[in-house]
Amino acid sequence: MYYLCNENFEHKLKKFDIQKIRADFPILKREVNGKPLVYLDNGATTQKPKTVIDAITNYYSDMNSNVHRGVHYLSQISTDAFEVTRRKVQEFINAREDAEVIITKGTTDSINLVAACYGKAFIHAGDEIIISAMEHHSNIVPWQMLCEEKGAVLRVIPMNNYGELDMDAYKSLLSEKTKLVSVTYVSNSLGTINPVKEIIKLAHAKNVPVLLDAAQAVQHIAIDVQDLDVDFLAFSGHKMYAPTGVGVLYGKRELLDSMPPYQGGGDMIKDVTFEKTTYNELPFKFEAGTPNIEAGICLAVAIDYINDLGIENIRAYEDELLDYATSKIKEIAGVKIIGEAAKKSSVLSFVVDGVHPYDIGVILDKLGIAVRTGHHCAQPVMDLFNISGTVRASLAVYNTKEDIDNFIAGLTRALKMLL
Ligand SMILES: *Cc1c(COP(=O)(O)O)cnc(C)c1O
């Protein structure tokens, strides 16, 4: 087992056995442009451990078959494996029951499901939906589309220059017109960890349900949906060491039960006649059609991987790395960190006076260092800071102090060439 003690950073690194963790991720051995890969684009997607990669092959070589349908052996074992994921997710986020876990394609799909179904049932002309100034486009556009369709109004919680939400402004936005609050747990462009428990408490005081976009939280921070008392929670498999094409929507049963289905098709029905169709129970009511079965099954394997390391250990380790990276980058003249919230997770976004983020990204890539540049699907955030984009280094559990040192050296070199 891995164990973190509260002594100095070097000591923690050794205890965490980072080399063993890195050996679990085959891609980390490869070179890019003749240099060892330094992968710091985990906010976009994480790499996959061998257990997950093997589970994909194993699914196709050993159990490929459609789920929830066949009477035959293979269909039963693939269904069982798929349903193991639902229970793993239930335990991982501490949902009351596995029927509250809807398997989707990802965060975007999960949020669109709520916008479509909750929107259809509960949003009317003049109603208000509150989001925040730091949302990913996935948590802006579905609500804009819904508001346009229904004649509802989108309200936005502003933030300060550190990238922290203005909670007083939030309080004054909440009113009897508010029908839903949908905010991110952790900002993908700034790294801010929002005070989600307080956000939920304040909304509930007005009987308003809350959706949390946990796409950047679930792989870094322990989440307990009952303790948070959150109404909906959305996240993606591919940012938590699982394949693309699978994600989760958690919803409280009473809310999910009160919503109409999302898409129509197989699996979501109980009985179909041309006169009338009755819908299936939760969770299947919201899972029309054949899902991405292998990705679904592999999500359980990724959760096992996280659980083996311990999410609290992962968080402590990544926090140390982020602190280290932050202190190192501050030593470089001209660098301005974008997003300096008191509580942050795993994201280091920055700009450099007189240099385009893209040019930094290209030079870092030549050195084998993968970062993201641009607006990070959060254009309104960039507008607020009056910039076109940032360079973003984002961390996962397999990153090392050496990765950070290489990144800082690469950045220093890039700036020498560009300035
Ligand atoms: C990545 C991300 C999304 C979108 O996730 P998809 O996997 O692309 O559907 C939404 N919100 C945040 C905060 C993200 O980081």
Question: Domains counted in the coordinates: how many?
Answer: 2
Distance separating the two termini: 47 Å
Proportion of helical residues: 40-55%
Strand content: 15-25%
Low-confidence stretches: 1-9
Instruction: Give the C-alpha Rg.
Output: 22 Å
Structural shape: globular
Total number of β-strand segments? 17
Q: Largest sheet at a glance?
A: 7 strands, mixed
Return the average pLDDT rounded to an integer.
95
Task: Give structural notes.
- The chain has 419 residues and is α/β, with parallel strands linked by helices.
- The chain has two domains: 7-32 and 310-418, Alpha-Beta Complex (Aspartate Aminotransferase, domain 1); 53-307, Aspartate Aminotransferase, domain 2, CATH 3.40.640.
- Helix content is 41%, strand content 16%.
- The chain is built from 15 helices and 17 strands.
- A seven-stranded mixed beta sheet has the order 4-10-9-8-7-5-6, with helices on both faces.
- Helix 3 packs antiparallel against helix 11 and helix 4 (73-93) packs across helix 11 (293-309).
- The longest helix has 21 residues, at 73-93.
- The model is unreliable at 1-9 (pLDDT under 50).
- The structure holds pyridoxal-5'-phosphate.
- Residues 106-108, 136, 138-139, 184, 188, 213, 215-216, 236, 238 line the site of pyridoxal-5'-phosphate.
- Pyridoxal-5'-phosphate (PLP) is lined by residues 106-108, 136, 138-139, 184, 188, 213, 215-216, 236, 238.
